[in-house]
Design goal:
The protein is mostly beta strands and 229 residues long. 7% of the residues lie in helices and 49% in strands. The longest helix has 11 residues.
Length: 229
């Protein structure tokens, strides 16, 4: 009975992909990208897993600046001027076993309870730029519907969640790991900006993927922006 309860608890436990945030924010020198809990503990970042950093300029042109990024043990710094920034982190395959989570595909781990492929997307936008509402084409993406430039602390804004350009209904949206709503049939959610300054909103999508390496794929996306009081 004890072993059964242990496995049941593991089945109910969140995966690594849904337990931590991946986000980008602006700094005086450019941008900072981190993984973990914003305002709290941060995790190591493997430079090899950061596959793309797209910088969008005022004219809407996109360029990949990953080769110019500076990687530290727990951060990525990008010294660029961008109206929007998008970072793709390929977390690889994960398997949940009775001993915990391992960064291995199902066919390379032992006693696998469940397995998944993890991909994360961090997006930052300048609310004053017309590019703030642009669709950048990430596999999972949060896009402002209302003007963030007019938003202040306490105001409500509407976001749309897209996967491969298509709206994602019934997606849970969270701030600081606290669910605050679900998207409607148009993939939209209306939420209140809680504080002035930096706001980071996240969502995740899990879908079946029956392969020798994984049973599912988990996509995570965040949108970070700054608003006034």
């Amino acid at each position: 009975m004890k072993s059964f309860l242990a496995v049941a608890a593991l089945m109910a436990a969140p995966t690594l992909a849904t337990a931590h945030d991946f986000w980008a924010e602006r700094t005086p020198e450019g941008f900072l990208v981190r993984h973990g809990h914003r305002g709290g503990d941060v995790l190591a970042i493997d430079a090899a897993k950061v596959k793309r950093i797209r910088c969008v300029d005022a004219a809407g042109a996109q360029r990949d600046v990953v080769t110019a990024a500076r990687f530290g043990p727990k951060e990525v710094r990008v010294a660029e001027s961008c109206d929007a920034l998008s970072v793709f982190h390929d977390g690889g395959y994960w398997s949940l076993t009775p001993d915990g989570e391992v960064n291995l595909p199902k066919n390379q781990a032992q006693s696998v309870v469940k397995s998944w492929a993890s991909r994360q997307f961090a997006k930052w936008v300048d609310v004053k730029s017309p590019r703030a509402a642009a669709v950048l084409g990430d596999e999972l993406e949060l896009v402002p519907v209302t003007s963030l430039a007019k938003a202040h602390e306490g105001d409500k804004v509407t976001l749309r969640i897209l996967s491969a350009g298509q709206p994602v209904p019934d997606a849970v949206v969270a701030i600081d790991h606290r669910p605050i709503g679900e998207t409607d049939s148009k993939g939209e959610v209306r939420l209140r900006v809680r504080t002035a300054g930096i706001t980071s909103i996240s969502t995740s999508l899990r879908r079946p993927r029956v392969t020798p390496e994984a049973d599912a794929e988990v996509l995570e996306a965040s949108l970070t922006f700054e608003v006034g009081k």
